[in-house]
Every structure is written in C-alpha cells, then in structure tokens.
Amino acid sequence: GVVFNMLEEFVVENAGEEVFEEILDTCEFITVEPFVGPGTYPDEDLNELVSKTIAKLDIPLPDALRAFGKFAFPKLTEKVPDWLVNHAHPKDFLLTLDNIVHVEVRKLYKDADPPRFSFADPGPDELVINYQSGRRLYDFMDGLIEGVGEHFDTAFEYTREIIAENGEEYCQYHLKFAAGA
C-alpha cells in the first residue's frame, strides 16, 4: 500500500489529480478496496497501474521507474527517519539495507517481500551492491540510489550489470564515490 500511495502522489504531483483519476478509471485491479499504507497488494495491481500510467503519459517504462524511485526515496525516509540518523555517508546507509532496513520493513509489513541485497566493499570510495528481486525493478533501484546520493549530498557514479547465475538473475551495481566525500 505504501508504494501505491507514493505512486499516486508521484502521478498527481507530475500530471495532476484529474489525470490520475482518469488512469484509475482504466485499471482493472484484482483488489477491490482502496490501497492503504499498511496493506499488501498483488504485484499485478501495481503493474496495471504503472502500465496504464506510462501509456497515458507517454513515458518509457525505464524513465518512469527511475523517476519514481528518485521521488520515492525521500518519501520512504519521511516514514522512518531513524534509519538515516546514524549515517553521514550514502555508503554507510546502503550497507544497512538488508540487515536493518528490510528487517524493519518485514516487522512493519508482515507480507512484505523486499528485495535482497549483498555487498562487496572493495575500498573506501567504492561499493558493490547485488540487488536480487523477482520483480526486477532495476530502473526503480537506479532512482532510489540516485535519491540516496541527493539525500546525503554526495557525488558518486554508478554502473549496473544484470547477471544470470545458476538460474537466478540479479543486478550488480558498482558505485564509485568522489574521493574523500
């Protein structure tokens, strides 16, 4: 429900309430009741809303997901600001995603299925993130990573590579922070 609510806010902010209502009118959701924050809803409903939105606004899916991810990061942190207070650098925060942030997400939302992360720490100004999720929202993750950089006002570059191993697919991000940042 939290993601649905943020998506509504994103569309309303960028296209207007009337356009969002027009998009909703074209959707055929599995869920009958309104989407509310603490609820968990079928991925098919989110996919339906996203596909109708990008069609209505004539935006390529990768661009829409990336913009939404960048928009979503500060909204998520407003809900749980304590997750950020002990971190002065994006690398420090990103390293907590699986062991702290997603553990708390699972406590708050019992049916949540957040992505899984693993990390390699090749040096003080680098970080490798392995992002694995059946949803494969790599472009959304791009936007979230960019939102993290903006939040911490820290410049960095990143590349990503989609890797398939042992029948599993994941996205590997290589982040390089400005030296000494």
Condensed summary:
The protein is α+β, with helices and mostly antiparallel strands and 181 residues long. It is built from 7 helices and 4 strands, in the order H-H-H-H-H-H-E-E-H-E-E.
Characterise this structure:
The protein is of the alpha+beta class and 181 residues long. Helix content is 50%, strand content 18%. It contains 7 helices and 4 strands, in the order ααααααββαββ. The chain has helices spanning 2-15, 17-26, 43-57, 61-79, 90-94, 97-108, 138-152, and strands spanning 116-120, 126-132, 156-165, 168-177. A 4-stranded antiparallel β-sheet has the order 1-2-4-3, with helices on one face. A hairpin with a 2-residue loop joins strand 3 (156-165) and strand 4 (168-177). Helix 1 (2-15) packs parallel to helix 3, helix 1 (2-15) packs across helix 4 and helix 4 (61-79) crosses helix 7 (138-152). The mean pLDDT is 88.
